[in-house]
Amino acid sequence: MSVLTAQELEALMPDATQLDSDEPEMESSLHYAQLALLVGCLELAWGDRQDFFIGANLTVYFSRQQLKHRDFRGPDFFLVKNTERKPRRSWVVWEEDGKYPDVIIELLSTSTAQVDRTVKRDLYGQRFHTPEYFYFSPDTLESAGFRLALDEYQPIEANAQGWLWSEVLGLFLGIADRRLRYFSREGVMLPTPQEAVRLEVDRGQLLVEQERLRVQEMQDNLEQERLRVQEMQDNLEQERLRAEEAQRSAKAERLRAEEAEAQLRMVREQLRSRGLDSDGNP
Predict the structure, then answer these.
(1) In this structure, are residues 176 and 38 in contact, taking their beta carbons and an 8 Å threshold?
(2) Residues near 99 by Cβ (< 8 Å), separated by ≥ 6?
(3) Is this model's pTM higher than 0.85 or not?
């Protein structure tokens, strides 16, 4: 019997990338909404990156033995970094260069809480070697975070706001309005796509209002300039009228002086004709 080469063996292997996820439906609409929020916020924040994959209620296949025994394990939310950002029907570890999730978030429910706190936590730490594991209950708001140390998870200490820092994400996980949300190191909450749209609309409206105020200010300045020019024109007109009045007064004064001088000449002429001088002496 001939021995198969690695290439020949690979050619005989089935394409496991087409394995479908085999996860049960989520327990409630609260869980669906929370999962959509976690996925949507991170995809929006990392919109320009192409080096990650987010799994949402998606099965992680990590061994063929697991397939044989149908021992499926699918985190509610998981993130794999340094991989191609593309759609997948499931996460098949041996088809993904042996990569396991870098961070996992489970959403606790009545039926899964105990398993999530124990069995899954041990699996993610000891088999997956996933660096960080978080869980959150949309019903009771119970939450916790763990970081891997020698195949054992150690609790992550919350900050003053009660948020848990994720080194993998470079973000805090914290509760706001009964939802698990992402926060930046500076404490800014990452928006959902819907919130981002509203922020853009609000920002657009603010810019429109700022532009309206700027135009209004320009119009007010133009009006003030128009009034200033009008005032200057009025002052010039008044100055022109005063100059004309002064010219008329000067002309009238000149005419009166000429008339007086003419009368004086006439009187002198009359006196000379009578043989008298200007003082009336013979």
Answers:
(1) no
(2) 80, 82, 83, 93
(3) no
Q: Is 174 helix (H, G, I), strand (E, B) or coil?
A: strand
Only one residue has tokens 């000429």, namely 258
Q: Given the structure tokens 């990392």, which residue do they identify?
A: 46
DSSP 89: S
End-to-end CA distance of the chain: 174
Letter for the amino acid at 88?
Answer: R
Rounded Cα gap, residues 44 and 47, in angstroms? 5
- Segment (H or E) for 185: none
Tell me the C-alpha to C-alpha distance, in Å, between residue 59 and each of 75, 89, 150, 282: 7, 9, 25, 146
- Please state, in angstroms and rounded to a whole number, the distance separating the CA atoms of residues 167 and 172: 9
AA identity, residue 241: L
| 3-state SS assignment for residue 94 | helix
- Find where tokens 């919109």 sit: 47
Q: What is the pLDDT of residues 211-267, one digit of tens each?
A: 888 888 888 888 989 989 888 888 888 889 888 888 888 888 888 888 888 887 887
Q: What residues are paired with 79 via a beta bridge? A: 54, 103
What is the residue-wise DSSP string for 88-105? -SSEEGGGTTT---SEEE
29 CA to centre of own chain: 28
Cα–Cα distance measured from residue 129 to residue 240, given in angstroms and rounded to the nearest whole number? 95
- Name the residue with higher pLDDT: 145 or 260: 145
